[in-house]
Write a structure and sequence with these properties.
Bound molecules: pyroglutamic acid
Helix content: 40-55%
CATH topology of the largest domain: D-Maltodextrin-Binding Protein, domain 2
Distance between the termini: 70 Å
Strand order of the largest sheet: 7-6-8-5-9-11
CATH class of the largest domain: Alpha Beta
Number of helices: 10
Number of strands: 11
C-alpha cells in the first residue's frame, strides 16, 4: 500500500512537473461558420492531433472569424500571433497570381478534376508559402461555385449594375466582366450584407449560402459549376521547426486524414446544402444555355489573363493538369 501510494505520488509529481512544461496549446483561427464542413474537418483534425500527441500539442479551433477575421488569418500566422490556422487559398491572389490557380472559371469543375489540379499546383503553392514562413498541412475544396441572385437572371445582360459580393480577385474580375459592381465581403458577414442590400448577388458554393441562410434575402441559385476553390491549413514554420519529430509525424498523419475526410465531407455537403437552399424557398437549378455560353466566354478571357499573370509556373500547372486528363 505504501509503495502504491508513493508510486502514485511520484507519478502525480512527474505529471505535474513535466506536463505543463511540455504541453503547448495552439489556437487555430478559421474563417467559416462553425457548422460548415471545413470547420468540422478542422475540429476533427484538432482532436486527432491533441489525442495523437498525448496532449503535447493541443489544438483549439476558433471558427467563423471569431479569433481573427478571414482576411487577417494568414498574417497572424506568419507573424506568430497564432501558430496555426485555416484560410481560403485564393484569398492571397492579390499577393501572387499563382494562389488563384483554383479560381479559373471552367478549368476544373468537378471534385475529381479539382483533385488533379491540386496535385499539379501543390509543389508551387508549398514553395510560395514556405517563402512566407508558412508550412502547408492540408487543403480541402469547397463545392462547385454557382451564382446567387435576388431576381431571376437568364443572360449576362440581365446582370448589368447588380451589386455583387466578391471573395477574391477572380470573383471581383468576374463581376467586372459581367457588368456587375463588386464589393468584397467575408463569408462571416454576408447574411447582413444581403439583408441590408449592400449586395444582391454572389458566386459561391451551395454550402456557404446554406451556412448563412441566404434564402432570407436571395431567391435564385444557378449551378454554374465554375470552379472549386480550396481552403488550406498552414502552420508558422518557426513553430513547426520546434515540434518534435514524433509529433510532426502525428500532425502530418492527421493532416492527411483531414484532407481525405474533408474531400468526402465536401461531396456530401454539396447535395445536402443545395436541398437546404430549396427547402429555404430558393429556386435551384442550372443556368440557361445563353448564360452558360456567355459565362464560358468570360472564362476564356479570365484564363488568358491568369496565364499571363502567373507566367511560366502557372502555365506549367495548367499543362500538368491538362495532361493528367
Ligand atoms: N465559400 C467561400 C469561398 C468559396 C465558397 O464556396 C465564400 O463564399 O467566401
Amino acid at each position: 500500500m505504501k509503495i502504491l501510494t508513493s508510486l502514485l505520488a511520484a507519478t502525480a509529481l512527474t505529471a505535474a512537473a513535466t506536463a505543463p512544461a511540455m504541453a503547448e496549446k495552439w489556437d487555430m483561427p478559421m474563417a467559416y461558420s462553425a457548422s460548415n464542413f471545413h470547420s468540422a474537418t478542422g475540429a476533427e483534425f484538432a482532436k486527432c492531433v491533441t489525442t495523437g500527441t498525448g496532449g503535447e500539442v493541443e489544438i483549439v479551433t476558433h471558427p467563423s472569424g471569431s479569433l481573427f477575421k478571414g482576411a487577417d488569418i494568414k498574417r497572424a500566422i506568419q507573424t506568430g500571433q497564432a501558430p496555426i490556422g485555416e484560410r481560403l487559398l485564393s484569398g492571397h491572389q492579390n499577393e501572387n497570381a499563382l494562389f488563384g490557380f483554383d479560381s479559373i472559371p471552367f478549368l476544373a469543375t468537378s471534385f475529381d478534376d479539382s483533385a488533379k489540379l491540386w496535385e499539379a499546383a501543390r509543389p508551387s503553392i508549398e514553395n510560395l508559402l514556405a517563402e512566407q514562413n508558412l508550412t502547408l498541412l492540408y487543403a480541402v475544396p469547397w463545392p462547385p461555385q454557382g451564382l446567387y441572385f435576388k431576381d431571376e437572371v437568364n443572360s449576362v445582360a440581365d446582370m448589368e449594375g447588380i451589386k455583387f459580393r466578391s471573395y477574391n480577385n477572380a470573383t471581383s474580375r468576374l463581376a467586372e466582366l459581367t457588368g456587375m459592381l463588386p464589393v468584397t465581403i467575408e463569408a462571416a458577414e454576408i447574411s447582413q450584407a444581403f439583408a441590408t442590400g449592400v449586395a444582391d448577388s454572389m458566386v459561391s458554393s451551395g454550402s456557404t449560402g446554406y451556412d448563412r441562410k441566404v434564402w432570407e434575402s436571395l431567391n435564385y441559385f444557378y449551378e454554374v459549376d465554375a470552379w472549386l476553390p480550396r481552403n488550406y491549413v498552414m502552420v508558422n514554420s518557426d513553430i513547426w521547426a520546434g515540434v518534435s519529430d514524433a509529433n510532426k509525424n502525428v500532425i502530418k498523419g492527421c493532416a492527411e486524414l483531414a484532407e481525405y475526410a474533408g474531400n468526402w465531407r465536401a461531396k456530401e455537403y454539396t447535395g445536402f446544402t443545395l436541398q437546404g437552399l430549396r427547402d429555404g424557398g430558393m429556386t435551384v437549378g442550372p443556368a440557361s444555355e445563353q448564360m452558360t455560353n456567355e459565362l464560358k466566354e468570360i472564362g476564356v478571357t479570365m484564363t488568358n489573363e491568369w496565364l499571363e499573370a502567373a507566367g511560366d509556373e502557372g502555365k506549367a500547372i495548367v499543362d500538368a493538369f491538362n495532361s493528367s486528363q
